[in-house]
Design brief:
The complex is a heterodimer.
Chain A (H helix, E strand, L loop, with lengths): L1 H10 L4 H22 L5 H27 L7 H16 L11 H23 L4 H21 L1 H4 L5 E2 L12 H24 L2 H11 L1 H6 L4 H27 L1 E2 L6 H14 L4 H17 L7 H6 L7 H15 L14 H4 L9 H5 L13
Antiparallel strand pairs in A: 1-2
Helix pairs in contact in A: 3-8, 3-11, 3-12, 3-13, 4-5, 4-6, 4-11, 5-11, 8-11, 9-11, 12-13
Chain B lengths: L15 E12 L2 E12 L3 E5 L6 H9 L6 E6 L2 E2 L5 H6 L2 E3 L12 H6 L10 H6 L1 H21 L15 H14 L4 E5 L7 H16 L3 E5 L3 H7 L3 E5 L2 E6 L1 H5 L2 H7 L6
Parallel strand pairs in B: 3-8, 3-9, 6-7, 7-8
Antiparallel strand pairs in B: 1-2, 1-4, 4-5, 9-10
Helix pairs in contact in B: 5-6
The chains are: A mainly alpha, B alpha/beta.
Chain lengths: 374, 268
């Protein structure tokens, strides 16, 4: 029990602003639950939104590995997401141009393999150079992938898109929307725990050094190219998994979602949440989706109707306004990374940091729980 | 100064850690490093001085592999490292610091120090999940080493500070300590006391000397004459990309060519 309380103290209520942020998130959750119970908010709608937020959270976690850890500027988030979505759609939908109708597992596997392959391909020429070259190349890649999907109709069905993508795990005794929501929560948990472990490790430390001063890392004998490649591939694979999940969430995919706007939503989510922070990435994604989806209903509010303006299309304006506010009042984002990231098990006994011993107690193995999140 | 004045470095040393032969580098029409051959003997503090633009930093970048040379070779412990990347040279025991170290954002001093030792097991994602206890053990040892080193350098109280809060001089000390954790055969220090207050500069001098007495070899670029004259022996003097001469501090001080180079011997 003390482990839980210290975890809460270390993680959730570190400073007054964070306390307020978590209080606000808690309040919104309560309101949504009340909304569902009173029938104001449809459960099905809410579960779909949770799945959507979850997917964006995965994308943000992926970008956070690249930009937040290693400082890699990747403008092709939408492309890796699209690669994942199309891998899933092409392999699993019976009426896709490939017409295979395979089990969704193969879609996810293909998403991982293809995205890793493309990431390596784009990484080889650019990651040895200054960071701006990856930015330029990835911007180009995003459009190339979109153009290929749009134009190679014989393989991708082009602009007409692919429908008939099967639901995931429809054998579960839940509604389809509840199943997808549960799956995305599971995916986030797995990715989050994985990333938390690597972020606090010597591996993560080298990446953060590269982000601040790549030459220093080289001078200390670190093969920065290899580290950057690993971060780039890891982030891209997470994005592709999010894409594959989206295909099974939306059950339909077409190239119009692969526009640069999707990429920039994810960038906003990462910056808003706190660059370099895993929990920030998740919260940032939730905020961006809340604004994007929430503004659809603005015009239904009586007061706004009397104004006679259509507010819904202004959603980007709201996102932009929020960014300005955050940058003005909380420059490091909503939940910035903590100051010190030390391998939790090694803190204990060496007098390192003000960590709670709860995380340090669970030494070794892959399932180090407790400790503090970032 | 005519070409005959360039005597070159001494190339008859016994136990050579670092050796360059005929290093050359030109940026467009400007020859920044012109046929530089030097030797650094094990166990010495070798100084490198020269007026601004003499090519000291370029030479450091060539030796550490951050610039590609046009001609010449670099050997470390007799092994040719000319074709190796900077990080590979570092692993061969040739480690450098930078004139203006950038602060590691979001890292404590402890973390900034822990980047040094390498290669670490925990730098492989695979080990993180399949041999976590080895990673823990190594990390503990490294944290302990960090604590000891910082205490030895009398900045143990800074260990929890964000590295962005350090003063320039403290940063230089952390850099020196971190470079030392790599266990180098030769440490190249690029202006270790530039912009450092005199008290701290004296501390740095003392620590460098201490490490040297324990066997650490140094090659140091420094503009602060009293500092380098007091610390280093021998001293290599560069001028216009070439090695002017090499000698003890006294020899350097009394050498007319050196004085001419410094006092604006721009004429032929």
């Amino acid at each position: 029990m003390s482990a839980v309380t210290s975890w809460v103290r270390e993680t959730l209520v570190r400073d007054a602003t964070e306390r307020r942020i978590f209080a606000a998130l808690g309040l919104i959750t309560v309101l949504l639950v009340v909304g569902v119970l009173t029938g104001v908010v449809g459960l099905r709608f809410l579960l779909f939104q949770i799945a959507l937020v979850g997917m964006y959270a995965l994308l943000s976690l992926g970008l956070n590995v690249q930009w937040g850890y290693a400082g890699l500027i990747n403008f092709s988030v939408a492309a890796f997401w699209g690669i994942g979505a199309y891998c899933a759609a092409l392999l699993t939908a019976p009426n896709s141009p490939l017409g295979l109708g395979l089990h969704p597992v193969f879609g996810f596997l293909a998403a991982i393999v293809v995205s890793a392959f493309v990431a390596v391909l784009i990484g080889i020429p650019t990651l040895r150079l200054r960071e701006d070259y990856l930015a330029i190349a990835s911007l180009g890649l995003a459009e190339v992938i979109r153009a290929i999907i749009l134009n190679e109709r014989q393989w991708t069905a082009g602009s007409s898109g692919i429908s008939g993508i099967p639901n995931l795990m429809s054998w579960l005794p839940l509604t389809d929307s509840a199943t997808t929501a549960a799956i995305v929560v599971f995916l986030i948990a797995v990715v989050y725990l994985f990333l938390r472990r690597v972020h606090r490790s010597p591996w993560g430390r080298v990446l953060r050094t590269i982000r601040s001063d790549e030459n220093l890392a080289k001078a200390l004998g670190k093969n920065t190219y290899r580290f950057k490649m690993q971060a780039f591939v890891l982030g891209s694979v997470i994005m592709a998994v999010a894409g594959a999940f989206y295909a099974h969430l939306n059950l339909y995919i077409d190239p119009s979602d692969l526009v640069p706007l999707t990429t920039f939503y994810i960038w906003i989510a990462v910056i808003l949440g706190g660059t370099g922070s895993n929990r920030g990435a998740v919260v940032g994604a939730a905020v961006v989706i809340a604004i994007r989806e929430g503004t659809r209903f603005l015009n239904d509010i009586g007061f706004i109707q009397t104004l006679g303006v259509d507010l819904a299309p202004l959603r980007l304006l709201f996102v932009g306004g929020l960014i300005i506010l955050i940058m003005r009042f909380r420059q490091d984002g909503l939940l910035p990374p903590k100051d010190e990231l030390i391998w939790p098990a090694a803190r204990d006994g060496s007098g390192a940091g003000g960590a709670s011993p709860s995380g340090a107690a669970s030494d070794g193995g892959a399932s180090s729980n407790g400790g503090d999140d970032r | 100064m005519n070409d005959d004045a360039y005597e070159g470095a001494r190339l008859d040393k016994d136990d050579v850690v670092l050796k360059t032969t005929g290093l050359e580098k030109a940026f467009g029409g400007l020859v920044a490093t012109d046929d530089v051959s030097i030797e650094v003997e094990r166990g010495t503090i070798t100084g490198m001085i020269g007026p601004n633009g003499a090519g000291k930093s370029t030479l450091f970048n060539l030796i550490s592999g951050f610039y590609e040379n046009d001609a010449g070779r670099v050997t470390v412990n007799g092994e040719d490292v000319t074709d190796l990347e900077p990080h590979e040279r570092a692993r061969k025991g040739l480690v450098r610091t930078f004139q203006t170290p950038r602060r590691l954002e979001g890292m404590s001093v402890r973390e900034a120090m822990l980047v040094g030792p390498g290669p670490q097991k925990g730098e492989s994602i695979f080990s993180l999940f399949f041999s976590g206890s080895d990673v823990t053990e190594e990390e503990r040892a490294n944290i302990e080493q960090t604590r000891e080193l910082l205490e030895r350098f009398e900045i143990g109280h800074l260990i929890d500070q964000p590295s962005t809060d350090l003063s320039g001089g403290q940063m230089k000390l952390v850099e020196l300590a971190r470079a030392f954790t790599t266990n180098p055969d030769i440490l190249l220090l690029d202006e270790p006391v530039a912009g450092v207050n005199p008290t701290l500069a004296n501390d740095i001098k003392r620590f460098i000397r201490e490490l040297n007495e324990e066997g650490q070899t140094f090659l140091i670029i420094e503009h602060d004459m009293p500092f380098i004259m007091d610390l280093a022996d021998p001293i290599i003097v560069l001028d216009q990309g070439k090695v002017l001469m090499e000698g003890s501090p006294d020899e350097v001080r009394s050498d007319d060519r050196v004085i001419e180079a410094y006092l604006g011997g721009a004429g032929p």
